[in-house]
Design a protein that fits this description.
With about 425 residues, this protein is an alpha/beta fold. It has a domain of about 250 residues: Aspartate Aminotransferase, domain 2 (3-Layer(aba) Sandwich), CATH 3.40.640. The protein contains twelve helices and 15 strands. The strands form three sheets. Strands 4-10-9-8-7-5-6 form a seven-stranded mixed β-sheet, with helices on both faces. A four-stranded mixed β-sheet has the order 1-2-3-13. Helix 2 packs antiparallel against helix 9, helix 4 crosses helix 8 and helix 10 runs parallel beside helix 12. The protein is globular and about 60 Å long. The structure holds 4'-deoxy-4'-aminopyridoxal-5'-phosphate (PMP). The site of 4'-deoxy-4'-aminopyridoxal-5'-phosphate (PMP) has 16 residues, from helix 4.
Length: about 425
Protein backbone atom coordinates (compact mmCIF):
# COMPACT_ATOMS: atom_id res chain seq x y z
CA UNK A 1 0.00 0.00 0.00
CA UNK A 2 2.00 2.88 -1.15
CA UNK A 3 1.04 6.27 0.15
CA UNK A 4 1.84 9.81 -0.77
CA UNK A 5 2.86 10.80 2.70
CA UNK A 6 6.15 12.55 2.52
CA UNK A 7 5.10 14.93 5.28
CA UNK A 8 8.08 15.96 7.34
CA UNK A 9 7.37 17.25 10.83
CA UNK A 10 8.16 20.87 11.43
CA UNK A 11 6.93 24.23 10.34
CA UNK A 12 4.85 24.16 7.19
CA UNK A 13 3.66 27.59 6.12
CA UNK A 14 0.55 26.10 4.58
CA UNK A 15 -0.70 24.74 7.91
CA UNK A 16 -2.32 26.80 10.64
CA UNK A 17 -0.80 26.84 14.12
CA UNK A 18 -3.73 24.67 15.30
CA UNK A 19 -3.03 22.14 12.56
CA UNK A 20 0.66 21.99 13.39
CA UNK A 21 -0.24 21.40 17.03
CA UNK A 22 -2.70 18.67 16.04
CA UNK A 23 -0.02 16.93 13.96
CA UNK A 24 2.34 16.98 16.93
CA UNK A 25 -0.29 15.65 19.33
CA UNK A 26 -1.21 12.99 16.81
CA UNK A 27 2.38 11.79 16.40
CA UNK A 28 2.93 11.82 20.15
CA UNK A 29 -0.13 9.76 21.01
CA UNK A 30 -0.62 7.54 17.94
CA UNK A 31 3.03 6.61 17.76
CA UNK A 32 5.36 5.95 14.85
CA UNK A 33 3.31 3.65 12.58
CA UNK A 34 0.70 6.09 11.34
CA UNK A 35 1.11 8.11 8.15
CA UNK A 36 -0.72 11.15 6.87
CA UNK A 37 -1.58 11.46 3.22
CA UNK A 38 0.06 14.24 1.18
CA UNK A 39 3.08 16.50 1.70
CA UNK A 40 0.55 19.07 2.86
CA UNK A 41 -1.82 17.06 5.08
CA UNK A 42 -5.55 17.50 4.64
CA UNK A 43 -7.56 18.52 7.69
CA UNK A 44 -11.24 17.66 7.34
CA UNK A 45 -14.18 18.03 9.66
CA UNK A 46 -17.21 17.09 7.58
CA UNK A 47 -18.28 15.19 4.48
CA UNK A 48 -21.27 15.27 2.19
CA UNK A 49 -21.70 13.39 -1.08
CA UNK A 50 -18.43 13.59 -3.03
CA UNK A 51 -17.19 16.52 -0.95
CA UNK A 52 -15.03 16.74 2.16
CA UNK A 53 -14.80 20.02 4.06
CA UNK A 54 -12.00 21.63 6.01
CA UNK A 55 -12.42 23.62 9.22
CA UNK A 56 -12.83 26.89 7.28
CA UNK A 57 -15.49 25.35 5.02
CA UNK A 58 -13.03 24.76 2.16
CA UNK A 59 -14.31 21.98 -0.13
CA UNK A 60 -12.22 19.04 -1.36
CA UNK A 61 -13.45 16.88 -4.22
CA UNK A 62 -13.12 13.28 -3.05
CA UNK A 63 -11.84 11.14 -5.91
CA UNK A 64 -10.29 8.58 -3.60
CA UNK A 65 -12.60 7.16 -0.94
CA UNK A 66 -14.30 3.93 -1.93
CA UNK A 67 -15.57 3.25 1.59
CA UNK A 68 -18.08 6.08 1.31
CA UNK A 69 -19.56 4.25 -1.66
CA UNK A 70 -22.93 6.03 -1.37
CA UNK A 71 -21.24 9.42 -0.87
CA UNK A 72 -20.24 10.81 2.52
CA UNK A 73 -22.94 10.85 5.18
CA UNK A 74 -25.72 9.69 2.89
CA UNK A 75 -28.94 10.62 4.72
CA UNK A 76 -30.55 7.22 4.15
CA UNK A 77 -27.55 5.37 5.61
CA UNK A 78 -27.19 7.83 8.51
CA UNK A 79 -30.89 7.50 9.34
CA UNK A 80 -30.77 3.69 9.22
CA UNK A 81 -27.79 3.58 11.59
CA UNK A 82 -29.36 6.08 13.99
CA UNK A 83 -32.72 4.33 13.94
CA UNK A 84 -31.32 0.87 14.64
CA UNK A 85 -28.94 2.24 17.31
CA UNK A 86 -32.05 3.53 19.07
CA UNK A 87 -33.81 0.16 18.89
CA UNK A 88 -31.30 -2.60 19.56
CA UNK A 89 -27.60 -3.27 19.18
CA UNK A 90 -26.39 -6.64 20.44
CA UNK A 91 -24.49 -9.50 18.83
CA UNK A 92 -25.32 -12.44 16.60
CA UNK A 93 -26.15 -14.97 19.33
CA UNK A 94 -29.75 -13.90 19.67
CA UNK A 95 -32.50 -14.39 17.13
CA UNK A 96 -32.87 -11.19 15.18
CA UNK A 97 -34.61 -10.44 11.91
CA UNK A 98 -32.28 -7.63 10.74
CA UNK A 99 -29.17 -9.81 10.70
CA UNK A 100 -30.83 -12.66 8.82
CA UNK A 101 -32.60 -10.37 6.36
CA UNK A 102 -29.34 -8.58 5.51
CA UNK A 103 -27.47 -11.87 5.07
CA UNK A 104 -30.20 -13.10 2.74
CA UNK A 105 -30.06 -9.91 0.70
CA UNK A 106 -26.28 -10.04 0.50
CA UNK A 107 -26.08 -13.63 -0.72
CA UNK A 108 -28.67 -12.61 -3.32
CA UNK A 109 -25.86 -10.56 -4.91
CA UNK A 110 -23.62 -13.63 -5.16
CA UNK A 111 -23.76 -16.67 -7.43
CA UNK A 112 -26.27 -19.28 -6.20
CA UNK A 113 -23.44 -21.63 -5.15
CA UNK A 114 -22.02 -19.04 -2.71
CA UNK A 115 -25.00 -19.08 -0.42
CA UNK A 116 -23.76 -18.60 3.13
CA UNK A 117 -22.16 -15.63 4.85
CA UNK A 118 -20.26 -14.95 8.08
CA UNK A 119 -19.84 -11.41 9.36
CA UNK A 120 -16.70 -9.66 10.57
CA UNK A 121 -15.82 -6.01 11.24
CA UNK A 122 -12.90 -5.55 8.85
CA UNK A 123 -11.58 -6.86 5.57
CA UNK A 124 -8.49 -8.16 7.38
CA UNK A 125 -10.64 -10.24 9.68
CA UNK A 126 -12.63 -11.51 6.71
CA UNK A 127 -9.46 -12.65 4.94
CA UNK A 128 -8.13 -14.17 8.16
CA UNK A 129 -11.33 -16.14 8.61
CA UNK A 130 -11.40 -17.18 4.95
CA UNK A 131 -7.85 -18.46 5.30
CA UNK A 132 -8.77 -20.56 8.33
CA UNK A 133 -11.77 -21.96 6.48
CA UNK A 134 -9.67 -22.74 3.40
CA UNK A 135 -6.99 -24.47 5.46
CA UNK A 136 -9.58 -26.51 7.35
CA UNK A 137 -11.38 -27.53 4.16
CA UNK A 138 -8.33 -28.45 2.11
CA UNK A 139 -6.02 -29.67 4.85
CA UNK A 140 -3.36 -27.58 3.13
CA UNK A 141 -1.46 -24.52 4.30
CA UNK A 142 0.01 -22.95 1.15
CA UNK A 143 -1.33 -19.66 -0.14
CA UNK A 144 -0.60 -17.91 -3.43
CA UNK A 145 -0.85 -14.12 -3.64
CA UNK A 146 0.44 -11.51 -6.06
CA UNK A 147 3.81 -9.81 -5.68
CA UNK A 148 2.46 -6.51 -4.33
CA UNK A 149 -0.74 -7.81 -2.75
CA UNK A 150 -2.36 -6.24 0.28
CA UNK A 151 -4.93 -8.28 2.16
CA UNK A 152 -4.84 -6.88 5.69
CA UNK A 153 -3.28 -6.43 9.08
CA UNK A 154 -3.62 -9.60 11.18
CA UNK A 155 -0.52 -11.73 11.77
CA UNK A 156 -1.63 -14.40 9.31
CA UNK A 157 -2.73 -11.91 6.67
CA UNK A 158 0.25 -9.54 7.00
CA UNK A 159 2.35 -12.64 6.20
CA UNK A 160 0.66 -12.76 2.81
CA UNK A 161 0.62 -9.03 2.11
CA UNK A 162 3.95 -8.35 0.39
CA UNK A 163 3.05 -4.69 -0.17
CA UNK A 164 3.75 -4.11 3.52
CA UNK A 165 7.41 -4.27 2.55
CA UNK A 166 10.48 -6.26 3.39
CA UNK A 167 10.15 -5.40 7.08
CA UNK A 168 7.13 -7.71 7.25
CA UNK A 169 8.38 -11.17 6.25
CA UNK A 170 6.18 -13.45 4.16
CA UNK A 171 4.97 -16.67 5.76
CA UNK A 172 6.85 -19.90 5.06
CA UNK A 173 3.75 -21.26 3.29
CA UNK A 174 3.24 -18.20 1.12
CA UNK A 175 4.28 -17.95 -2.53
CA UNK A 176 3.98 -14.82 -4.64
CA UNK A 177 3.24 -14.60 -8.35
CA UNK A 178 3.87 -11.69 -10.71
CA UNK A 179 0.85 -9.40 -11.03
CA UNK A 180 -1.05 -9.59 -14.29
CA UNK A 181 0.36 -7.44 -17.08
CA UNK A 182 -1.60 -5.26 -19.41
CA UNK A 183 -0.36 -6.75 -22.67
CA UNK A 184 0.32 -10.11 -24.26
CA UNK A 185 -1.66 -13.19 -23.23
CA UNK A 186 -2.57 -11.85 -19.80
CA UNK A 187 -4.48 -14.93 -18.63
CA UNK A 188 -1.87 -17.42 -19.79
CA UNK A 189 1.01 -15.43 -18.33
CA UNK A 190 -0.71 -14.99 -14.99
CA UNK A 191 -1.62 -18.69 -14.86
CA UNK A 192 2.00 -19.52 -15.68
CA UNK A 193 3.04 -17.73 -12.47
CA UNK A 194 0.45 -19.63 -10.48
CA UNK A 195 1.59 -22.96 -11.92
CA UNK A 196 5.20 -22.14 -11.05
CA UNK A 197 4.18 -21.25 -7.49
CA UNK A 198 2.26 -24.52 -7.17
CA UNK A 199 5.26 -26.47 -8.43
CA UNK A 200 7.49 -24.68 -5.94
CA UNK A 201 5.09 -25.55 -3.11
CA UNK A 202 5.08 -29.17 -4.18
CA UNK A 203 8.88 -29.29 -4.09
CA UNK A 204 8.81 -27.78 -0.61
CA UNK A 205 6.22 -30.31 0.57
CA UNK A 206 3.55 -27.63 1.10
CA UNK A 207 -0.01 -28.64 0.36
CA UNK A 208 -1.84 -25.72 -1.29
CA UNK A 209 -4.88 -24.22 0.43
CA UNK A 210 -5.76 -21.14 -1.56
CA UNK A 211 -5.18 -18.74 -4.40
CA UNK A 212 -6.12 -15.38 -2.87
CA UNK A 213 -6.48 -12.41 -5.20
CA UNK A 214 -7.85 -8.90 -5.07
CA UNK A 215 -9.89 -9.06 -8.26
CA UNK A 216 -8.94 -5.50 -9.30
CA UNK A 217 -5.26 -5.96 -8.29
CA UNK A 218 -5.37 -2.59 -6.61
CA UNK A 219 -2.01 -2.53 -4.81
CA UNK A 220 -0.36 -4.25 -7.79
CA UNK A 221 -1.27 -1.23 -9.91
CA UNK A 222 -4.89 -1.91 -11.09
CA UNK A 223 -5.32 -4.70 -13.63
CA UNK A 224 -8.73 -5.89 -14.72
CA UNK A 225 -8.60 -6.49 -18.44
CA UNK A 226 -9.31 -8.52 -20.43
CA UNK A 227 -12.38 -9.86 -18.70
CA UNK A 228 -12.01 -13.55 -17.96
CA UNK A 229 -8.21 -13.56 -17.72
CA UNK A 230 -8.30 -14.92 -14.15
CA UNK A 231 -10.04 -18.14 -15.17
CA UNK A 232 -6.96 -20.09 -16.26
CA UNK A 233 -5.08 -19.38 -13.03
CA UNK A 234 -8.08 -20.35 -10.92
CA UNK A 235 -8.40 -23.60 -12.86
CA UNK A 236 -4.71 -24.38 -12.24
CA UNK A 237 -5.06 -23.66 -8.52
CA UNK A 238 -8.15 -25.84 -8.20
CA UNK A 239 -6.50 -28.68 -10.10
CA UNK A 240 -3.82 -28.67 -7.38
CA UNK A 241 -6.45 -28.81 -4.62
CA UNK A 242 -6.43 -25.11 -3.68
CA UNK A 243 -9.52 -22.98 -3.22
CA UNK A 244 -10.09 -19.69 -5.01
CA UNK A 245 -10.67 -16.84 -2.57
CA UNK A 246 -11.85 -13.63 -4.24
CA UNK A 247 -10.89 -10.61 -2.15
CA UNK A 248 -13.60 -8.12 -3.07
CA UNK A 249 -12.72 -5.53 -0.45
CA UNK A 250 -11.63 -3.18 -3.25
CA UNK A 251 -13.40 -4.45 -6.35
CA UNK A 252 -16.77 -5.40 -4.91
CA UNK A 253 -19.95 -3.49 -4.32
CA UNK A 254 -20.71 -2.16 -7.81
CA UNK A 255 -17.46 -0.23 -8.21
CA UNK A 256 -16.39 -1.85 -11.47
CA UNK A 257 -19.65 -0.93 -13.14
CA UNK A 258 -20.43 -4.09 -15.06
CA UNK A 259 -20.91 -6.42 -12.12
CA UNK A 260 -21.52 -6.19 -8.40
CA UNK A 261 -18.32 -8.16 -7.71
CA UNK A 262 -15.02 -8.19 -9.56
CA UNK A 263 -14.85 -11.98 -9.95
CA UNK A 264 -18.10 -11.87 -11.96
CA UNK A 265 -16.28 -10.02 -14.74
CA UNK A 266 -14.05 -13.09 -15.01
CA UNK A 267 -16.99 -15.50 -15.25
CA UNK A 268 -15.90 -17.24 -12.06
CA UNK A 269 -17.68 -18.74 -9.06
CA UNK A 270 -15.26 -18.49 -6.12
CA UNK A 271 -15.09 -20.90 -3.22
CA UNK A 272 -14.89 -18.03 -0.76
CA UNK A 273 -15.52 -14.31 -1.22
CA UNK A 274 -14.28 -11.67 1.21
CA UNK A 275 -15.63 -8.14 1.29
CA UNK A 276 -15.59 -5.09 3.52
CA UNK A 277 -14.85 -1.39 3.04
CA UNK A 278 -17.98 -0.11 1.23
CA UNK A 279 -20.40 -2.58 2.87
CA UNK A 280 -21.36 -0.20 5.67
CA UNK A 281 -20.26 3.03 3.92
CA UNK A 282 -17.90 3.68 6.84
CA UNK A 283 -19.65 1.68 9.53
CA UNK A 284 -17.41 -1.33 10.30
CA UNK A 285 -18.93 -4.22 8.40
CA UNK A 286 -17.19 -6.98 6.46
CA UNK A 287 -17.92 -10.57 5.55
CA UNK A 288 -16.81 -13.91 4.19
CA UNK A 289 -19.27 -15.63 1.89
CA UNK A 290 -18.78 -19.22 0.88
CA UNK A 291 -20.08 -22.39 -0.61
CA UNK A 292 -21.78 -24.49 2.10
CA UNK A 293 -19.57 -27.50 1.37
CA UNK A 294 -16.47 -25.34 1.90
CA UNK A 295 -17.74 -23.92 5.20
CA UNK A 296 -19.02 -27.28 6.48
CA UNK A 297 -15.94 -28.70 8.24
CA UNK A 298 -14.93 -25.38 9.74
CA UNK A 299 -18.46 -24.97 11.11
CA UNK A 300 -18.40 -28.48 12.55
CA UNK A 301 -14.99 -28.17 14.17
CA UNK A 302 -14.86 -24.55 15.26
CA UNK A 303 -17.42 -22.31 16.83
CA UNK A 304 -17.52 -18.86 15.22
CA UNK A 305 -18.47 -15.75 17.12
CA UNK A 306 -17.56 -12.14 16.51
CA UNK A 307 -18.71 -9.67 19.16
CA UNK A 308 -19.35 -6.76 16.82
CA UNK A 309 -19.40 -8.39 13.39
CA UNK A 310 -22.89 -8.45 11.90
CA UNK A 311 -24.61 -6.72 14.80
CA UNK A 312 -28.02 -5.21 14.07
CA UNK A 313 -26.69 -1.67 13.60
CA UNK A 314 -24.03 -2.89 11.15
CA UNK A 315 -26.63 -4.91 9.29
CA UNK A 316 -29.02 -1.94 9.16
CA UNK A 317 -26.16 0.09 7.69
CA UNK A 318 -25.47 -2.71 5.22
CA UNK A 319 -29.12 -2.85 4.19
CA UNK A 320 -29.26 0.93 3.68
CA UNK A 321 -26.10 0.87 1.54
CA UNK A 322 -27.67 -1.72 -0.75
CA UNK A 323 -30.86 0.38 -0.90
CA UNK A 324 -28.83 3.36 -2.13
CA UNK A 325 -26.68 1.40 -4.59
CA UNK A 326 -29.82 -0.07 -6.14
CA UNK A 327 -32.15 2.92 -5.73
CA UNK A 328 -29.69 5.44 -7.18
CA UNK A 329 -28.40 3.05 -9.88
CA UNK A 330 -24.82 3.51 -8.69
CA UNK A 331 -23.47 0.54 -10.63
CA UNK A 332 -24.77 2.07 -13.86
CA UNK A 333 -23.33 5.42 -12.81
CA UNK A 334 -19.93 3.82 -12.18
CA UNK A 335 -20.02 2.28 -15.64
CA UNK A 336 -21.01 5.49 -17.40
CA UNK A 337 -18.86 8.01 -15.54
CA UNK A 338 -15.88 5.65 -15.31
CA UNK A 339 -15.93 4.95 -19.03
CA UNK A 340 -16.08 8.66 -19.87
CA UNK A 341 -13.30 9.49 -17.42
CA UNK A 342 -10.97 6.81 -18.76
CA UNK A 343 -11.52 8.04 -22.31
CA UNK A 344 -10.83 11.65 -21.33
CA UNK A 345 -7.76 10.78 -19.26
CA UNK A 346 -6.43 8.66 -22.11
CA UNK A 347 -6.76 11.62 -24.46
CA UNK A 348 -4.62 13.83 -22.20
CA UNK A 349 -1.45 12.03 -23.33
CA UNK A 350 1.72 13.70 -22.10
CA UNK A 351 3.30 11.97 -19.13
CA UNK A 352 0.55 9.34 -18.97
CA UNK A 353 1.81 5.91 -19.99
CA UNK A 354 -1.38 3.89 -19.63
CA UNK A 355 -4.93 4.21 -18.35
CA UNK A 356 -6.36 1.07 -16.76
CA UNK A 357 -9.35 0.03 -14.72
CA UNK A 358 -13.07 -0.57 -14.89
CA UNK A 359 -16.01 1.50 -13.73
CA UNK A 360 -14.92 3.96 -11.08
CA UNK A 361 -11.67 2.22 -10.23
CA UNK A 362 -9.09 3.83 -12.47
CA UNK A 363 -5.33 3.38 -12.49
CA UNK A 364 -3.24 5.87 -14.46
CA UNK A 365 0.33 4.73 -14.97
CA UNK A 366 2.91 7.52 -14.90
CA UNK A 367 6.59 7.29 -15.83
CA UNK A 368 7.80 7.18 -12.23
CA UNK A 369 6.90 7.74 -8.59
CA UNK A 370 8.13 11.34 -8.69
CA UNK A 371 5.71 12.42 -11.41
CA UNK A 372 2.87 10.52 -9.73
CA UNK A 373 3.64 12.18 -6.38
CA UNK A 374 3.88 15.56 -8.06
CA UNK A 375 0.42 15.12 -9.62
CA UNK A 376 -1.11 13.77 -6.38
CA UNK A 377 0.30 16.57 -4.24
CA UNK A 378 -0.42 19.20 -6.87
CA UNK A 379 -4.04 18.09 -7.18
CA UNK A 380 -4.33 18.19 -3.43
CA UNK A 381 -3.37 21.89 -3.58
CA UNK A 382 -6.23 22.26 -6.05
CA UNK A 383 -8.41 20.48 -3.48
CA UNK A 384 -8.91 17.35 -5.55
CA UNK A 385 -8.03 14.19 -3.64
CA UNK A 386 -6.46 11.12 -5.26
CA UNK A 387 -3.52 8.87 -4.34
CA UNK A 388 -0.95 6.56 -5.95
CA UNK A 389 -0.42 2.81 -5.88
CA UNK A 390 1.52 -0.03 -7.48
CA UNK A 391 4.94 -1.54 -6.76
CA UNK A 392 6.64 1.61 -8.07
CA UNK A 393 4.09 4.02 -6.52
CA UNK A 394 3.69 5.41 -10.04
CA UNK A 395 0.04 4.58 -10.69
CA UNK A 396 -2.52 7.25 -9.88
CA UNK A 397 -5.34 5.69 -7.90
CA UNK A 398 -8.69 7.22 -8.83
CA UNK A 399 -11.55 5.68 -6.91
CA UNK A 400 -14.29 8.13 -5.90
CA UNK A 401 -17.59 7.49 -4.12
CA UNK A 402 -19.99 5.97 -6.66
CA UNK A 403 -22.22 9.06 -6.62
CA UNK A 404 -19.50 10.80 -8.64
CA UNK A 405 -21.20 12.49 -11.60
CA UNK A 406 -20.05 13.85 -14.96
CA UNK A 407 -19.83 17.35 -13.50
CA UNK A 408 -17.46 16.08 -10.80
CA UNK A 409 -15.47 14.22 -13.45
CA UNK A 410 -15.08 17.55 -15.27
CA UNK A 411 -13.63 19.21 -12.16
CA UNK A 412 -11.28 16.29 -11.64
CA UNK A 413 -10.10 16.41 -15.27
CA UNK A 414 -9.44 20.15 -15.10
CA UNK A 415 -7.17 19.64 -12.08
CA UNK A 416 -5.42 16.65 -13.64
CA UNK A 417 -4.85 18.48 -16.91
CA UNK A 418 -3.38 21.45 -15.06
CA UNK A 419 -1.01 19.27 -13.05
CA UNK A 420 0.13 17.25 -16.08
CA UNK A 421 0.97 20.50 -17.81
CA UNK A 422 3.37 21.33 -14.99
CA UNK A 423 5.42 18.12 -15.27
N1 LIG B 1 -8.12 -6.59 1.16
C1 LIG B 1 -7.88 -5.57 0.32
C2 LIG B 1 -7.78 -5.84 -1.14
C3 LIG B 1 -7.71 -4.28 0.83
O1 LIG B 1 -7.48 -3.25 0.00
C4 LIG B 1 -7.83 -4.06 2.22
C5 LIG B 1 -7.71 -2.68 2.84
N2 LIG B 1 -6.98 -1.75 2.15
C6 LIG B 1 -8.07 -5.15 3.05
C7 LIG B 1 -8.23 -6.40 2.48
C8 LIG B 1 -8.15 -5.01 4.54
O2 LIG B 1 -9.33 -4.39 4.93
P1 LIG B 1 -9.42 -3.65 6.35
O3 LIG B 1 -8.57 -2.42 6.28
O4 LIG B 1 -10.89 -3.37 6.50
O5 LIG B 1 -8.94 -4.61 7.37
Amino acid sequence: MSMINAYAAGADERLSADERALIERRARVLGPSYRLFYEHPVHIVRGEGVWLYGPGGEAYLDVYNNVAVTGHCHPHVVAAIAKQAGILNTHTRYLNETVVAFAERLVGKLPAEVSQVMFTCTGSEANDLALRVARTHTGGAGVIVTETAYHGVTQAIAELSPSLGKGVPLGANVRTVPAPRSSGDVGKDFAEGVRAALADMERAGIKPAALLVDTVFSSDGVFCEPKGFLAEAVEAARAAGALFIADEVQAGYARLGEAFFGFQRHGLVPDLVTMGKPMGAGHPLAAVAGRPEVLEKFGRTSRYFNTFGGNPVSCAAGMAVLDVIEGESLMQNALKVGRAMRAEIGALGGAIKEVRGAGLFIGVEMADAESAASVVNGMRERRVLISATGPGANVLKIRPPLVFGMDHAGLFLDALRAELALL
